[in-house]
Amino acid sequence: MKNPLLKFAQLIVLLIATAAFRAAAADTDIDIEHRPDATKALIPVSISGFTGEVDSTLKFDLEVAGFKFVAADQAQYNITGSNNGGVQGRVTDRINKASLLAKAYEGGSPRAQAHTFADDIVLAVTGQKGIALTKIAFKGGSGDNSEVYVADYDGRNPVAVTQDRTIVAAPCWVPGRRMLCYVSYKLGNPDIYSQDLQSGARKIVARYSGSNISPAVSPDGRRIAMILSKAASPDLYVADLDGSNLKRLTTTREDESSPCWSPDGRTICFASRVGGSAALYTISAEGGPMRRLSTAEVGNATEPDWSPDGKLITFTRTRARSFDVCVVPARGGVASVLTEGEDSSWAPNSRTLVFVRRVGGRRVLSLLDVPTKQVKNASQISGSASQPAWAR
After folding, report:
1. What proportion of the chain, given as a percentage, has pLDDT over 90?
2. pLDDT above 50 for 8
3. Each residue of 204-258: pLDDT tens digit?
């Protein structure tokens, strides 16, 4: 028989270890069951009755949202309907024998009706808002002949919003407004502009000597972070959206790049080489010390983007001949590699990423459902597409 004191001591050790594990899990700010390196199961659905563009649009939208298509007798949810004279659709839960959605859609194009139905399906099944009606901006083209484009989230209906016929870069949205900020060499120097997408009116935000790059607008749409080399090395600055009230936040000799804002607008995450190699840092938007953000097990981190729910930061890991899309808890910690690619940007749902893959010498846009790791290629323009930014 075992010594009862020994058994008691072993029990105490086990309880302490369990408490330490739970404390560590809580400190990552991520539910252990929803950690970014855990692949979730796809939602099995069947779909019937739709044709042509409506059918293909619905399937694309739902696959991006983490659904998979199976036979009707194997699905949990059956999606039925038609698109004769407008989209009409119904969603039933086959397992629980319940009707979740029955609706007819009018107005707009068949494609827009399909997107709307897809978003309603996502909401009915998951309780989360869909993203099929959102927009992205991106850089189209390469070298000295590129423009800023805006398109539907799936890459369809791309429209060039600049006609600069030069180098453009780093488009970003002004939250809550149909307005972009971006970099253009239109006047021979990398300068930052804002542009109203309805009127087309364009204004210079930053045109100092040296480079003016990497604009990022705060969640309230009032301030802009950017990288300026007006004082020699590229440092992080913030200003009002029109460029006034400029304030310098970093004073390093090394390069800073790619700022992004926390959802509450209090903190900026950016990349810096202050430690010798590319890594992520955070700093108060009002100024203060830089703090290195741990991306344990994944080095050479750059191009961060903070999820709208505040829980995760996606970033690019640079390797010798390729790049990886990664994610890390917003507090820092163990990072996870999601897929090969770069330039990732969060959707408003904090679940989906748009990113860039290199295929046959071109850069192409793709969409990643982070929980299921399912990837779908977006519709492409004729040339390269890169540096995407999702409207929020």
Report:
1. 85
2. no
3. 999 999 999 999 999 999 999 999 999 989 999 999 999 999 999 999 999 999 9
pLDDT at 29 over 70: no
Average confidence score pLDDT of the chain: 91
Report the b/e string of 177-216 with b at 16+ CB within 10 A: eebbbbbbebeeebbbbbbebeeeebeebbebeebbbbbb
Q: What is the pLDDT of residue 360?
A: 86
Confidence of residue 290 (pLDDT cuts 50, 70, 90): very high
Q: Give the C-alpha separation, 22 to 4, whole Å.
A: 27
| Side-chain half-sphere exposure of 205, counting CA atoms within 13 A | 36
Q: At what angle do helices 110-126 and 52-64 cross, to 10 degrees?
A: 30
- Domains delineated in the chain: 43-126 (3.40.50.11830), 135-390 (2.120.10.30)
pLDDT in tens, 357-374: 999 889 999 999 999 999
3-state per-residue secondary structure call for the chain: CCCHHHHHHHHHHHHHHHHHHHHHHHHCCCCHHHCCCCCCCCEEEEEECCCHHHHHHHHHHHHHCCEEECCHHHCCEEEEEECCCCCEEEEEECCCCEEEEEEECCCCCHHHHHHHHHHHHHHHHHCCCCCCCCEEEEEEEECCEEEEEEEECCCCCCEECCCCCECEEEEEECCCCCEEEEEECCCCCCEEEEEECCCCCEEEEECCCCCEEEEEECCCCCEEEEEECCCCCCEEEEEECCCCCCEECCCCCCCEEEEEECCCCCEEEEEECCCCCCEEEEEECCCCCCEECCEECCCCEEEEEECCCCCEEEEEEECCCCEEEEEEECCCEECEEEEECEEEEECCCCCEEEEEEEECCEEEEEEEECCCCEEEECCCCCCCEEEEEECC
Rounded Cα–Cα distance for residues 325 and 313 (Å): 11
Its pTM stands at 0.89
* Parallel, antiparallel or unpaired: strands 67-69 and 43-48: parallel
Task: Round to whole Å and give the CA distance between 86 and 104.
Answer: 7
Q: How confident is the model at residue 35 (pLDDT cuts 50, 70, 90)?
A: low
